[in-house]
From TrEMBL:
Lineage top rank: taxon: Bacteria
Cofactor stoichiometry and binding remark: Binds 1 FAD per subunit.
Cofactor(s) listed in the protein's UniProt record: FAD
Keyword entries, A-Z: FAD, Flavoprotein, Lyase
Binding site for FAD: 26, 73, 177-179
InterPro entries linked: Crypto/Photolyase_FAD-like_sf (IPR036134), Cryptochr/Photolyase_FAD-bd (IPR005101), Cryptochrome/DNA_photolyase_1 (IPR002081)
Domain Cryptochrome/DNA photolyase FAD-binding as annotated: residue spans: 73-203
Name this polypeptide is given: Deoxyribodipyrimidine photo-lyase
Gene3D superfamilies in the record: 1.25.40.80, DNA Cyclobutane Dipyrimidine Photolyase, subunit A, domain 3 (1.10.579.10)
Molecular function via GO: deoxyribodipyrimidine photo-lyase activity; DNA binding; FAD binding
Length: 396
């Protein structure tokens, strides 16, 4: 069973052993969903929390391959950057998702048929063997192969005819790599909401081929008509770096990288909101993973000679800022998603109390997000620029 030990050391080991396979063998074999996932990197759970960065991954891969040989793998990493940019530029898509999820949650409170179909899907009791296997695999391991995610989402929407937001939410609560941008926009893409008129239909032959005949489900939908599609919200600006210094720094669970911390005598906090409120809670596996990664970040920071403080609430952040007399707080830009929803009000409160906020945006993100204005095809043209600007962060 695939496992994700929660440490940067594991992420680095995994990257080292995977990088030699990121060339032509990845291009040929990446679509196979096999036991233990031998042909993909399994790095997403670390990338999502920036325990390891996209730049580090790309640099290591380019030590073994030319950009041409590793084109497929590089493009996949860039899909991540692209989706992030799309959601940063159109944050209303996240608000719409949350509002629609809320409406679907209300529906399952009042419609017992829908509620039991939703429960069967989440508990792997639909009778579609492949789907039930993936539901269980997700809950047990916190991971699914990309192809399985596509098939699962397609069957959820077009065969089971369940609201897509409940499926996206099931993923968000269980995936260790749960990422608001990749998840929401991939579900939207499968449903035909993201690329107008284009849906993804899971086909039995394709599933049989890429699971090496482990599964050939029967009774799947044969057509996938796009869901109703309100226009995309308007495109906003890409987030920018404050360009200013700071006298205290807050890491958060969406970006635990320590490369910006090489500043002596700078108090450091690690912000970890507890997400136990609400009806739909993250899985214990996911919460434990996040907590362990935050502790791992604290141990890494301690090696820099600083003693970080774990902060779990707005009050604790306020107290920490006051006790260190912090006037300018640096932090990695909070991308749209649950961490942003939890932590932004904490930051707004200290800003109101007179602390100046100094968000930091990496050049890599800035270049990528600025280009996320249309489809991935257009975005691809800036990949050489992204690769030219790669900078090895001095992470610990
Ligand atoms: C419905 C659906 C939901 C998804 N939800 C998430 C999510 O919550 N979080 C998440 O990180 N990814 C998500 N993905 C994208 C993708 O499935 C995972 O990133 C990938 O499977 C992670 O496995 P890996 O690290 O072994 O990938 P590899 O194949 O080794 O790829 C290397 C890296 O490239 C990036 N990547 C690969 N494929 C994609 C993709 N299709 N879209 C965006 N980035 C990609 C990831 O960062 C990944 O770690 C989703 C895809 C679908 C279809």
């Amino acid at each position: 069973m695939i496992e994700f030990p929660p440490s940067r050391a594991t992420a680095l080991d995994r990257l080292k052993s995977f990088a030699p396979k990121a060339g032509s063998s990845y291009a040929r074999l990446r679509n196979f969903d096999l036991t233990n996932h031998p042909h993909v990197s399994a790095l997403s759970s670390y990338l999502t929390h920036r325990v390891i960065s996209e730049e580090e991954v790309l640099i290591e891969v380019l030590r073994h391959h030319t950009a041409k040989d590793a084109e497929k793998f590089i493009q996949e990493v860039c899909w991540r950057t692209y989706w992030k940019g799309v959601l940063e530029r159109r944050p209303a898509l996240w608000d719409r998702y949350k509002a629609d999820l809320n409406a679907s949650w209300n529906q399952i409170q009042t419609q017992s048929g829908l509620r039991s179909e939703w429960e069967d899907a989440c508990l792997g009791r639909t009778g579609i063997d492949a789907f039930d296997h993936w539901a269980n695999e997700l809950v047990e391991t916190g991971y699914l192969h990309n192809h399985a995610r596509m098939w699962f989402a397609s069957i959820w929407i077009f065969t089971l005819r369940l609201p897509w937001t409940l499926g996206a939410d099931f993923f968000m609560r269980h995936l260790l790599d749960a990422d608001a941008a990749s998840n929401t926009l991939s579900w939207r893409w499968v449903a035909g909401l993201q690329t107008t008129g284009k849906t993804y239909l899971a086909r039995p032959d394709n599933i049989a081929k890429y699971t090496q005949d482990r599964f050939r489900p029967r009774g799947l939908a044969e057509f996938a008509a796009p869901l109703d599609n309100p226009n995309l919200p308007p495109l906003g600006p890409a987030p920018i770096d404050s360009g200013e210094g700071f006298d205290g720094f807050a890491l958060h669970i969406s970006d635990l990288s320590t490369d910006t911390l090489a500043q002596p005598n700078c108090p450091i906090a690690v912000l970890v909101p507890s997400s136990t409120e609400g009806n739909l809670r993250p899985s214990g596996l996911q919460q434990d993973f996040k907590t362990a990664l935050a502790n791992d970040a604290c141990r890494r920071i301690a090696k820099l000679g600083e003693t970080p403080t774990l902060v779990n609430s707005a009050d604790q952040l306020n107290d920490w800022v006051a006790s260190h007399s912090i006037r300018r707080l640096g932090f990695h830009h909070l991308t749209i998603g649950p961490s942003h929803d939890h932590i932004s009000p904490w930051l707004n409160a200290i800003e109101t109390a007179g602390v100046s906020l100094q968000p930091q945006v990496r050049d890599y993100d800035s270049i990528g997000w600025s280009a996320a204005t249309a489809g991935f095809f257009k975005f691809k043209s800036i990949i050489p620029r992204l690769l030219d600007g790669l900078r090895q962060p001095s992470l610990i």
